[in-house]
Design goal:
The chain is an alpha+beta fold and 287 residues long. It folds into three domains: 3-69 and 120-142, Ribosomal Protein S5, domain 2 (2-Layer Sandwich), CATH 3.30.230; 72-113, no CATH class; 145-283, no CATH class. 63% of the residues lie in helices and 15% in strands. It has helices spanning 42-52, 77-93, 101-106, 121-191, 198-212, 215-232, 239-260, 263-283; strands spanning 3-10, 14-23, 28-33, 56-66, 72-75, 112-115. The strands form two sheets. It has a four-stranded mixed sheet with strand order 1-2-4-3. α1 (42-52) links the parallel β3 and β4.
Length: 287
């Protein structure tokens, strides 16, 4: 589920910033960017994030700067000399200017190293975790707000499906009458024929009528719609249950469409499928 949280700490000795971004994902996928001095804390940070944010593609970025004890800078002179000599030789062979080679070499990897002091790191880590906790709360609050908006959308989609179902209820009696008329006409034609098995005909008629009946599907679909709204009102995470329920709703809608054998009802079924697809798309954002 989409979310964002930013928390910062700024004082005379320390500057810390924690930014958390959450995007839609069916699973928990956490990417963590830590300061070099705290690389060994990744497992701990991942655990803290997992306990607060259950699902989503989570990006955590933590910046840390000490003001009371600046980093000690060292130059790898041996490596610098080696780089300089190699570049100078290449420049000579190419008859190119050697001006600026020193500045270029200073930017090469590992030539200049900044070593931060390790004292007070644990104390600072404790403060950093407080900032992390604050950012997580803000991110979760953001997701809760998004969730409330999403819930309203889902309620609208469910109401639309129920409205289509109500229209199908109104279409169904006319559909039954049309089926009866066709059957009666066909029955008259068959009875006028000398060759037909009455018992077999009655069995096939019963099978045909049952195959066209959508009463059970309508009842089950209505039950699924009511239960969906009931789950939405619960405070606990129910994303997986809602996903399963949407699949069951789709099964009933498809069966109604295949059994109805009626153009008017088919149009309503298409409308229900469209709303159901919107529900499935939004359910990817629910925990």
């Amino acid at each position: 589920m989409t979310g964002y949280g930013l928390a910062q700490l700024e004082n005379d000795t320390l500057s810390v910033s924690v930014e958390i971004k959450s995007l839609n994902s069916k699973f928990l996928d956490t990417q963590i960017k830590l300061p070099k001095v705290y690389f060994d804390k990744e497992v701990e940070v991942r655990k803290i994030v997992t306990e607060k944010l259950e699902r989503g593609k989570i990006a955590v970025s933590i910046t840390y700067e000490r003001k009371d004890d600046p980093a000690q800078v060292t130059i790898n002179k041996k490596l610098l000399k080696s780089y300089y000599q190699e570049i100078s030789e290449i420049a000579s062979k190419l008859e190119a200017s050697k001006e600026g080679i020193l500045g270029l070499v200073l930017d090469f990897p590992d030539v200049i190293r900044a070593q931060e002091s390790t004292d007070k790191l644990e104390d600072h880590w404790s403060q950093l975790k407080d900032v992390l906790a604050e950012a997580l709360v803000k991110c979760d609050d953001f997701r809760v707000t998004e969730g409330a908006t999403l819930k309203n959308k889902l309620v609208v989609y469910i109401d639309r499906i129920e409205a289509y179902l109500t229209k199908i209820e109104k279409f169904d009696p006319a559909r039954h009458d049309a089926i009866k008329q066709r059957l009666a006409q066909r029955l008259t034609e068959i009875e006028s024929s000398e060759k037909y098995d009455q018992n077999r005909f009655e069995q096939e008629m019963i099978y045909y009528i049952e195959k066209l009946d959508i009463s059970e599907e309508k009842v089950r679909l209505k039950s699924h719609l009511d239960y969906f709204l009931e789950i939405l009102s619960e405070s606990e995470s129910k994303g997986k249950k809602l996903s399963f329920l949407s699949q069951e709703m789709g099964r009933e809608i498809n069966t109604i469409g295949s059994k109805a054998n009626d153009a008017g009802i088919q149009k309503l079924v298409v409308g229900m499928k469209d709303e159901l697809e919107k529900i499935k798309e939004q359910l990817q954002n629910i925990l």
